[in-house]
Write a structure and sequence with these properties.
Elements (H helix, E strand, L loop, with lengths): L4 H5 L26 H9 L2 E7 L10 E8 L7 H20 L5 E6 L8 H8 L4 E2 H4 L9 E2 L13 E2 L2 E5 L1 H4 L2 E7 L9 E6 L1 H5 L1
Parallel strand pairs: 2-3
Antiparallel strand pairs: 1-2, 3-7, 4-7, 5-6, 8-9
Amino acid sequence: KFKMPAKRAAGKTTYGGVGILARKSIPLIPIGRDSQAAQALHESTRWVSSAIPLSTHGALSRRFLHICSFYGVVNRRNDARHTQNERLLKRLFEYGTKLGQQPVLLCLDSNTTVHASLVLSQALTSKNWIDFGSYFTTNNPECTFSSAAQWDKISTGAGVTRPDLILANQYALQLCTSFQLRRDLTVKGHLGLQIEISAPKAME
């Protein structure tokens, strides 16, 4: 009985859409999509963004921690969909860069890998974006997904990859105190990615 544009955009797959959840009720304030990147991401129904004030008063109340959630286009062995996914990833980094000197986190199931995506590899090579999976493991990140139905969330091999990423700009990196993979979640196929943000560091 609900309209589901994200489900329609996902095609025949079982899943579709993105979301950001909060434990406490937070008022939503609509913002304009004043850039081509934001408009393209919005129309894809594969992106949502939130802005959390770093403080309730003073100058920091006008600065925000931006969190974006992005779900890439499933594109396995499909050149057209791979190109579509690359274009959306490019828009994602354009949007994050335009936010300027504010902390930005990009949380994504990219449906690709850093090695398979020119856009992802270029963004990380630029040093403007940091991959937490690599940063917190000294460039030895673990895989986060398997196409096998009965994956034990530990084994590696064919079909085990790392499409799930949390990327941060330099400002967000300073706020993050820990990163870990969650193997105890009920979601099949994917591991969870968990980070901790320090409020005192944000105040600094």
